[in-house]
Design a protein that fits this description.
Elements (H helix, E strand, L loop, with lengths): L1 H14 L9 H14 L7 H18 L2 E2 L10 E5 L5 E2 L2 E6 L14 H9 L1 H14 L8 E5 L7 E6 L9 H20 L4 E4 L11 H19 L4 E6 L2 H13 L1
Helix pairs in contact: 1-2, 1-3, 6-7, 7-8
Length: 254
């Protein structure tokens, strides 16, 4: 693993015209992630992709994979799971993206957009860039796009831009958040996905109140499944204890 990481860091530093600093293993991991985070979309060598994929797959094995098949539903076709969404094996996971749709460029940032792009590999940013080039404009709030999952255990990533809340929460914010969930579900069904994991869209960095966001998430998913008769399995993925408690209460109540 050390040789692979050294090769990846060396290649990325050379792209930037920088020398490789002397670091311990933990610092090297952080530097690799930072270099990937700030790298603009673009072609890389087959050798880089091979080594990167081997490195990321080994990192995933060390973290461990959670398979939807091993989860117990809390209601018909509905699941609640607390953990790292980049280790979840299901057909698709939802990424809380920004309007550029290229991932987070802030080195080692803690957002889900950063994590998904980091552990999927540089191919994901390149595919997103191609989608955005064809589209010719920034992604509108409430819509969704689908890409491959690359080195993630999921098959696909669905990217959606949630509303950003500055000041008072409005009905428009709530409608746009519901649009995110419906757009992702519609796109998932259109592409034949049988399972989809949602993160807590728009909470955290986008400042949507957690309780209301969860209410909208559960309500929209249940309405969509009832109206369309969709059989898709939906996982509500949370990372924080606070969000787990909210979803557990809402899903139990329903």
């Amino acid at each position: 693993m050390s040789d692979k990481l050294n090769f990846l860091i060396k290649t990325l530093c050379e792209e930037r015209g920088e020398t490789v600093p002397a670091l311990n293993d933990m610092e090297k991991r952080r530097l690799f992630r930072a270099l990937v985070n700030v790298r603009m979309p673009g072609a890389v060598s087959k050798e880089f992709l091979r080594v990167q994929d081997e490195y990321l797959q080994e990192e995933l094995r060390q973290k461990g994979i959670t398979d939807i098949a091993d989860l117990k539903p809390v209601a018909p076709d509905l699941y609640l799971w607390q953990g790292d969404i980049t280790t979840l094996k299901c057909d698709g996971i939802v990424n809380a993206a920004n309007s550029q749709m290229l991932g987070c460029f802030c080195p080692n940032h803690g957002c889900i957009d950063n994590a998904i792009h980091t552990f999927a590999g540089v191919q994901l940013r390149q595919e997103c860039a191609e989608i955005m080039k064809t589209q010719g404009e920034e992604e509108a709030t409430g819509r969704a796009k689908i890409t491959l999952g690359y080195n993630l255990p999921c098959k696909y990533v669905l990217h959606t831009v949630g509303p950003i809340v500055y000041g008072k929460l409005t009905e428009k914010h709530e409608k746009l958040l519901a649009d995110c969930y419906r757009s992702c579900l519609t796109l998932a069904d259109k592409n034949g996905l049988q399972s989809l994991a949602f993160c807590c869209i728009s909470t955290g960095e986008f400042h949507f109140p957690n309780e209301r966001a969860a209410q909208i998430a559960v309500q929209t998913v249940e309405e969509y499944k009832r109206q369309t008769q969709s059989k898709i399995k939906v996982i509500f993925n949370v990372f924080k204890d606070y969000d787990y408690e909210i979803y557990a209460r809402l899903l139990k109540a329903n």
